[in-house]
Amino acid sequence: MTTPPAPFPPRLHVLLASNAPLGLVLRRGPSKQVATIHWDRHNDAFEVGQWLKGRIYERRSDLSPDGKYFLYFAMNGQWESEARGSWTAISRAPYLKALALFPKGNGWHGGGLWTGKRTYWLNDGYGHGVLRSTTEVQRDLAYSPPQLYGGECPGVYYPRLLRDGWTLRERIQVAKWKDVFIFEKWVAHGWALRKLAHAEVDAPPGKGVYWDEHELLHRASGETIACPDWEWAELDGKRLVWAAGGKLWAARLKGDGLMGQRELFDFRGMVFAPLRAPY
Questions:
Q1: DSSP assignment letter at 156
Q2: Reduced to 3 states, what is the DSSP secondary structure of residue 176?
Q3: Which bin fits 238, alpha (ψ -120 to 50), beta or left (φ > 0)?
Q4: How far apart are CA 119 and CA 201, in angstroms?
């Protein structure tokens, strides 16, 4: 008897507020279910916001600088609904209930970026409708990304990385439909965190068209520490935080490498539950 392959752990992507010790974890799994989880980075406490039966495109989403608002692009394929099957929304984090709702109807563009505490850029592309609006936040009509990376996830994700202190070091075109963008961020003690952002049609099993891998590079010695299991990683104050195997982890970087590694939260056992936003 052939043993069935082990299921892939849930995919994790995290958005960090730049001006507050808050974060939003996007937990995807199974493929058409996603949960939003509030992360208090001051005490590493986690609380579920809401679930969606559909897909949130984490690389076209953003968290406001104070962590209070979530801008996201989602799809559930219900093309005859008032949201037209795909939409951009703005909610009060960590919830998904829309304060502003912009029906899209296709998978091109969508989502956006926060340009200030209460101002946002809408990645309009082929255009959104307006189903619901709010005065709590304002659309920034003057902003446009400093460089264009196409009409899908990199068009929002790469400008977000650059805004958040990453440096684009290199673009490698491996094949016609396979690119790797190498981003780098200084950490501490001579170490830099490198993010290899892949865009490819034939991705490895368990990966999407867009996926990241990570490594640590010591600039003086040239030593490299491969981190093949890290699907997301970022600098959080003086510590490094990352997602691997359906869990969130943290450690400090010293001269010899990672020190004091610890598990912050295990997201593997979560199951869908209908939850209401408290507004």
A1: H
A2: coil
A3: alpha
A4: 34
